[in-house]
Structure formats: C-alpha cells, structure tokens
Amino acid sequence: MTSATNTASAVPADARLPLGGLLALALAGFITLMTEVMPAGLLPQMSGSLGIAESMAGQFVTAYAAGALITAIPLMTLTQAMQRRKLLLVAIVGFALVNMVTAISDHYWLTLAARVLAGMFGGVVWALLVGYAARMAPPHLAGRAIAITGIGAPLAFSLGVPAGTFLGTILGWRVSFGLMSVMAFVLIGWVFAKLPDFPGQQPGKHLSIRLVLRLSGLRPILFVMFVFVVAHNILYTYIAPFLVPSGLANRVDLVLLVFGIAGMLGLWIVGALIDRRLRQMVLASLFAFGGVALVLGLGSASPPAIFAATAMWGLVVGGAPTLFQTAEAKVAGEATDVAQAMFVTVWNTGVAGGGLIGGLLLEGFGVKSFPWVVLVLLSPALLVSWLASRHGFPSTRL
User: How buried is residue 208: exposed, middle or buried, by Cβ count under 10 Å (0-12/13-18/19+)?
Assistant: First the structure.
C-alpha cells in the first residue's frame, strides 16, 4: 500500500470528509470486532450446544486472534500490489462465508477452523482501515477520518455484542452469527457504492519489516499495547463466568452494554484530547485500568462494584486503540502501513494470549484470580510507557 501521508497530500485542503465511505469502513470494523468477540457473550450457550467446557469455548476467541496474528503481516506483504477495494471486498466476503459456517456447524473443530479463517480476514480488514481512511480525507482532517472509522469498535461493544448476546440467549447463538453474515453481504453493496478504489504499492517500494521494527519508539508502543490487550482479554473473554459470584451471570448483556456505552464516551474523550495529551492519556489509561482490576479483585461479589468498574473499564478500552494507533503513526511516518500490519499482529497476539491465560486461570485458580493477574501484568506496561518519554509516548509540544 502506498503511504497514507503521500496519498492524502494529493487531496484538496478544502475537501469535505467522505462520510458515506468512512461509515462503510466503520461498519467493516464493526463486523470484524463483532465476529471476534461475540463468543465471549455467548460462552455458556456455545459450550452447551457443542457439548464442550466453557474454557474450550473461550478458545473460539483465541482461534480468531491466532488466525489474524499469524497471517496479517504475510498477507499484507503478499497483497501489496492488489487494488485496495478489491482486497477489502475479498475480506468482507470471507467474513460472510465463515460466519455462516459457524452458524450451521455442529462440530467443535470445524467451528474452530472457521474462527481461524475469520481471524485471517479480520487481520486484512484492520490492516486496511486506517490507511484507507487517511487516503480518503484531506490531510488536515485525516485524524478525524480515522476517528470516524474507529467508531465501529465501540459501537460493536456498546450495541452489537449486547444485542448479539441477547438474541443468542433468546433465539440461539447461531442466529447471532447468521445475522453477521447478512450484515457482511449488505456491506459489500455499500463498499461498491461509496468507497473509491486505490492502487496497491508499486514494485520496488516495499518496506522491510526489520527496518520498521527498529524505528525509535515503536517497540515500546507495541509492548505496552500487547500487555494491555492481554490484560483486557483475560477479563473480557471470560466475562460470563466472572460474573457468577456477583449473581450477574444472567445479565451479561447489560454488563456489556455498560462497557460499550462507556467505550463510546472514551473514544470521544480521546478524539478531543489526543493531539495535545497523548502521553498523559496513555499513562492515565493504564493507571485507571489498574484501578479497575483492584476494584474487581476486592468487589467481585458486589454488583454495584462490578458495574462501576465495568464503566471505567469501558472508558479506558474505548479509546485505547486510537491512542496506540496514533502513537504508532507518529513514530512510523512513511512506514505506517507496515507498522499497521504489526499492530494487527501484536494486538491479536494479545487477544490470543489473554484467551489462553484466562482459560488456564479459569481451570486452575478460578475467576477470582483474573483481576490480580491483570494488575500484575499492567505494572511493566506502566513502567515502559513512563520511561518512553522521548520516543514512543513523548509529551506533545504545541
């Protein structure tokens, strides 16, 4: 992919944001994230239907993440010359098909394989979204365009996952995955109607993964993001069993709704302050997440504590992807597209790691161990982000 910076500079400065196209990208992100995390809200239903333990059902999230982390960089490398809209459409069609397979499968291993394929398509979509949005917008509005595209994620958390959980509880979990296929087919038409096409990267301009990884500040960003995502997914993947001691096991949809609404607020706050307060917001987010873990650890049997901590948790997670992507883009510059593939890989490695660690904790120590492990994990992330004051998470001087 050609760099977003170079392409965006060719757009007239007085151009308006192409909202129709940006919202199509937001819907692509919505479907991608819904497909990734919906098993977390439907864990009891899926495990009961397929005759497996909840820890095994939790691996549906892990399998998705594994598909993305293993293939994101290789696929984006192999498809650099491919037209961008064609590549996006291939990924969306793939989502429609694998979600349909998931909806009709009665076999654990077939479902797990479909989830791996879903992760592969998801890795392509996430690697495309940021650069695609920037190329569609004038340079002075590129950040806002990325923020609009990013709203698909908190909407998935606030509306999609709770709605999917509710429908899955009432009508069966297969209905939720079937509806995701229908949405993917609708999106195909929207992409054809509203998204412009862009050429792939020209031969001879490929960027080395090794050189990009050596950029000052990139490794601290990727490390902090990885730890953050692992910690988040230990809790989020197994939210249903975690709520049992508080008596909220039958209100997973409501808890996820609180999480998602707070996430939308978190994205809005980050969008308003990120250009001036990136470093401060990263540090504040890590501190706040640590506070969430402490409250959940001490009040795991208290519904008010659960809801209060969930609201703060959603607030933090809602803005986190934008914080990390913005920090990454500032460091990577012309190498943003390659760095974004790394972002997808590391993010999904964290998702897979969280699912695996959470499953081991669930079987070995029970749900009460989750918050304390999260608190331990966040300590090195906070230290690294604090030390990365020159490169990675520097203070912004206006």
Answer: exposed
Q: 179 versus 215: which is more confidently predicted?
A: 179
Query: What tokens appear for 54 in the block?
Result: 């909840």
Cα dihedral 254/53/39/114 (nearest 10): -170
Give every CB contact of residue 59 below 8 A, 6+ residues apart in sequence: 112, 355, 356, 359
DSSP 207: -
Asked if the structure places residue 6 within a domain, the reply is no
Give the chain's domain count: 1
Measuring CA to CA, which residue among 197, 191, 184 is closest to residue 82? 197
The amino acid at 320: A
Confidence of residue 28 (pLDDT cuts 50, 70, 90): very high
Q: What is the pTM of this model?
A: 0.73
Q: Cα dihedral sign for 385, 388, 393, 394?
A: positive
- Whether 225 is covered by a domain: the verdict is yes
Q: The dihedral of CA 20, 31, 151, 2: what is its sign?
A: negative
Cα separation, 47 vs 65, in Å, equals: 19
Neighbour count for residue 350 (Cβ, 10 Å): 22
CA–CA distance from 37 to each of 61, 72, 160, 161, 347 (Å)?
A: 6, 18, 10, 8, 13
Triad 259, 265, 271: Cα angle to 5°: 135
Q: Does some domain include residue 378? A: yes
Dig out the tokens for 291 from the structure. 């506070």
Find the angle CA(312)-CA(314)-CA(319) to the nearest 5 degrees: 105
pLDDT in tens, 202-213: 655 556 677 777
The enclosing domain of 147 has a CATH number of 1.20.1250.20
Residue 299 located in a structural domain: yes
Range of the domain at 117: 16-387
Distances, alpha carbon 76 to alpha carbons 136, 182, 200, 215, in Å:
20, 26, 10, 20
Strand (E) or helix (H) holding 300: none
